[in-house]
Amino acid sequence: MFGVQNPRRPALCRFGALDGNGRMNPDILNPRALDERFVVKVFMAFAALAVVALALNVAGRFAGASIALGGHSTDTTTREVVIGNDVVVAPANAIRFDHARHDGVAQRLDLYLRWPDMTGYSNAARDDFNIVGGRKALIYMTLEPRTMSRDMSGRLDPIYRSLIEPAGEKSDSGVLMHRFTEKSGYLGEMLAIKARPGGEALVARCLHGAAAAELLAPCERDIQVGDDLSLTYRFPAELLAAWPKLEYAVRAKALEMVKTASR
Fold this sequence. Notes:
Blueprint: H1 11-14, H2 31-69, E1 78-83, E2 86-91, E3 104-105, E4 109-114, H3 126-129, E5 138-145, E6 169-170, E7 176-179, E8 189-196, E9 199-207, H4 210-213, E10 219-225, E11 229-235, H5 243-257, E12 258-259
Parallel strand pairs: 1-3
Antiparallel strand pairs: 1-2, 2-12, 4-5, 5-11, 6-7, 7-8, 8-9, 9-10, 10-11
């Protein structure tokens, strides 16, 4: 029964003072033996704490580096991402999301580049990628399979003309900003049109108003690249003033990154 001692077994034996033969355990009365066992236990405890502290320190260094980068990467290793029949070759530091920075097959690829040099993240460009000081200098690009036969410029006359108000507001850089009609489904947006001599007009949709002022890239435009890809690039409204240069830079970067069966 619990709490009842065995009368045939001395209590000293149960508490370790006697060994199994009923003889006195010499260690129980030896202060040096007690001290040695205590020192060993204390040493092992401190050793275990030291191992845990070392592991936390190493983990902290890796986590600290990741937090400091804020999800960005300085890795310039080239990654090959297959989307449909096209292969996108891009440095890891230009790929926006960490989970996509590897070779393989994907449904889409999101990139971000700094204007005007069109390069990915680096320590020197840290402030621009972290929007320090409020400077908007990032171009966001998405590559994915085409779902429409025409790009945004090609959709101007057959689609957008009937959805915008005829009169537009012309900016100092020559960009016409047209409001969408109430029935268009594009409320809160404007259509930006930049005429180009001898070529198709540049066309983009831009949010406007208070909401647009808080966004890093309120304007977006899509173009066709590669064999069967659509490239949508989003950019700050301030870059409408340099739109032809921006368009050229985006197309040049796409030509550099997208590899097709023909080249």
